[in-house]
Amino acid sequence: MTDHLVAAEHEDWRLFLRKASANRSFQAGAIITLFIVIMAAVSLVWTPYDVSKLTIPDRLQGPSWAHWFGTDHFGRDIFSMIMEGSRNSIAVALIAVGIGIVIGVPIGCWAAAKRGWIDEVFMRTSDIIFAFPALLSAVMITAIFGPGAVNAIVAIGIFNIPVFARVARGAALSLWPREFILAARAAGKGPARITAEHILPNIANLLLVQGTIQFSLGILAEAGLSYVGLGAQPPATSWGRMLAEAQTMMAIAPQMAIAPGIAIIVTVLGLNLLGDGLRDLLDPKLRRER
Amino acid sequence: MLAYAARRLLIVLVTLLVASVIVFFVLEIVPGDPARLMLGLNATEDAVRALREQMGLNEPVLTRYISWLVGMARGDFGESLTYSVPVTELIADRVVVSLPLALLALGLSTAIAIPVGIFTAARRGTRADTAAMAGTQLGIAIPNFWFALLLVYVFAVTLQWVPAGGFPGWDEGLWPGLRALILPAIALALPQAAILARVARSALLETLAEDYIRTARAKGLPANIVLWRHALRNAMIPVLTILGLQFAFLLAGTIIIENVFFLPGLGQLVFQAINQRDLIVVEGVVVLLVGTVVIVNFLVDLAYAWADPRLRRR
């Protein structure tokens, strides 16, 4: 890991771009992710068909030029619904990652800076949280506090907190004995200032990689929660709910299940490839945790 | 070794205790009065008050927590509010579905993942390795409930080899029960196998880069012997960790898959109990699952310490 130097930043970028041009995993991941994000953005202003309008005569059509992925049992255009649904998936997963970073990273950095019993208490607490099966707990939280996108975000976000806290702590611990931190301490900077000015910029890479991984896990978790009816509620469209509706139509219209599934797979695959690529680019020594 | 085990056991107990506090008090702040919910909308205030009294809901929170905890320590998880039967009985009825399902999925995922991991590590960089790794990327990205839907469509709806859902019960014999579990087990196993195969491959590659492997090669041992006899054993440690984690994950992960196949397992029990505000059942299942995770991890830790004395000093 290179120490953070403002003067070298420009050079860093050129090096990054040169390595990126040789990293296929990064390229494929970046293109797919960009595509999904653009699709979600476009759906804010335009979709091929209005998904809130039911046109029963057009129901259960197969793929055609007019309806790329066919239509559902209410005659709605499935491609338009996929576009709408991408927004929900991205929003839920992204905010859940945000919760993990905003709460987890300060906790992890604090534990690394203080060490001693604070660190011990933190580690044991995160052990305990990890002992709760995440999916079961998310189901419990959303079922108890009411289904909906907001509670789904909270349920997924809570389990991102210890993940980011651990990554931040581990990386920060390895930095504290370094010379440049010692120099900062000798210059009279306190732990909070050292963390903000020297630790955080140096662990940002790691957090970015972990963020990508948690993002893809969040997409999967959101899909699962919506599938069992605990995520986004009607009239909002979500990929998981589309699959739940497809299940009831499985015997007569199996094609309804194909598009939402592919959408989830492509998004998760894209994010995972992006994460792998970033990890190789940003730090070749870094190893995946699981 | 004994001191190490005792220290780990203490951590296990503390973890369980804290987990029980979290579960109990989170469910304590749940909106909705169980007594009112049981009696329905038209219940009189007096009836609700009487039922609250009978259910012990008027006791102080701490008293209720302690009596719940003491009960659990004796194997008594309390009585379900909606079914009026002991929670342990309800759980036992459901575990006979969820546990075999989780074990079946774990077996399947191991049987697929380990050979793939060994094969790809031994042929690192070849086209077969690249293809298999691309396959695992895809496997990780596939939502298991979607895969389950496809399996139902192909094998239950179209080919009609297996039932599309439901569970006949083990009384009908072993085969009908297994037939009902095979598709859900495959759906659960696939993403797990993809993760496990990647772990096995990278663990093996790491071991193959060690000095003692170079020594073994230098003294002229055939590549196969080096791989199977020298590298594999050491590479299995991270694989075991993931296996331990996956078992617990599978046990809880059946919650959504059970939904696809209408299986009367633990997941379905939790769903029903949450909807009926039968909190004591929810508490029981969650504590049981957390307990399983903690104990499985404890056993895995002990197995390492037994295999590798260096770890005992930590």
Could you please describe the fold and organization of this structure?
The complex is a heterodimer of chains A (290) and B (314). Chain A has helices spanning 9-20, 24-45, 78-114, 116-131, 134-145, 149-175, 179-186, 191-227, 239-248, 255-282. The radius of gyration of chain A is 22 Å and the shape is elongated. Chain A starts with 8 loop residues before the first helix and ends in an 8-residue tail after the last helix. Chain A is 72% helix and 0% strand. Chain A has 290 residues and is an all-alpha fold. The model of chain A is unreliable at 286-290 (pLDDT under 50). Chain A is built from ten helices and no strands. In chain A, helix 2 (24-45) packs across helix 10. Chain B has a domain at 97-313: MetI-like (MetI-like fold). The longest helix of chain B has 39 residues, at 223-261. The model of chain B has no long low-confidence stretch (mean pLDDT 83). The A-B interface holds A 124, 127-128, 131-133, 135-137, 139-140, 143-145, 216, 220, 223-224, 227-228, 243, 246-247, 250-251, 254, 257, 260-261, 264-266, 268-269, 272-273, 287-288, 290 and B 11, 14-15, 18-19, 22, 27, 30-31, 137-138, 140-143, 145-146, 149-150, 152-153, 157, 195, 199, 202, 242, 245, 248-249, 251-253, 255-256, 259-260, 267, 270-271, 274-275, 282, 286, 289-290, 293-294, 297.
Protein traits:
heterodimer, A: 290 residues, mainly alpha, MetI-like fold, elongated, disordered C terminus, B: 314 residues, 0% strand
Biggest interface between protein chains, with counts per chain?
Answer: A-B, 39 and 48 residues
Strand tally of chain B: 0
Rg of Cα set of chain A: 22 Å
Order of helices and strands of chain B: HHHHHHHHHHHH
Pick out the low-confidence regions of chain A.
286-290
The global form of chain A is elongated
Whole-number radius of gyration of chain B? 24 Å
